């Protein structure tokens, strides 16, 4: 490998918008992120599926009737 062509890889301080701070390794000294594992809805269990205008119910009604007709 050639020497002195790679960026310096060292400790990095990560700051999340929620206030959480942790240390990792990177080519940058400081990283500012919007979400982390502490505040992300998927990891906190606050993830919600929004059903806009009853789309799921409308889909089930539409295709449930066809499934009954084709199964006869």
TrEMBL record:
Keyword Ribosomal protein: yes
GO molecular function: metal ion binding; rRNA binding; structural constituent of ribosome
Names of the cofactor(s): Zn(2+)
Cofactor binding note: Binds 1 zinc ion per subunit.
GO BP annotation list: translation
Pfam families referenced in this protein's UniProt entry, alphabetically: Ribosomal_L31
Gene Ontology CC annotation, any one: ribonucleoprotein complex
Stretch forming the signal peptide: none
Binding site for Zn(2+): 16, 18, 36, 39
Keywords of this entry: Metal-binding, Ribonucleoprotein, Ribosomal protein, RNA-binding, rRNA-binding, Zinc
Family assignment from sequence similarity: Belongs to the bacterial ribosomal protein bL31 family. Type A subfamily.
Biological role: Binds the 23S rRNA.
HAMAP family in UniProt: Ribosomal_bL31_1
PANTHER family associated with the record: 50S RIBOSOMAL PROTEIN L31, CHLOROPLASTIC (PTHR33280), LARGE RIBOSOMAL SUBUNIT PROTEIN BL31C (PTHR33280:SF1)
Subunit structure: Part of the 50S ribosomal subunit.
Entries under NCBIfam families matching the protein: L31, PRK00019.1
Protein name as it appears in the record: Large ribosomal subunit protein bL31
Native species: Silvanigrella aquatica
């Amino acid at each position: 490998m050639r020497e002195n062509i790679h960026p310096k890889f060292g400790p990095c301080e990560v700051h999340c918008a929620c206030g959480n701070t942790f240390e990792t390794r990177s080519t940058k000294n400081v990283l500012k992120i919007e979400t982390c594992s502490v505040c992300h809805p998927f990891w906190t269990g606050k993830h919600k599926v929004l059903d806009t205008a009853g789309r799921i119910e409308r889909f089930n009604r539409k295709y449930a009737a066809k499934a009954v007709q084709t199964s006869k």
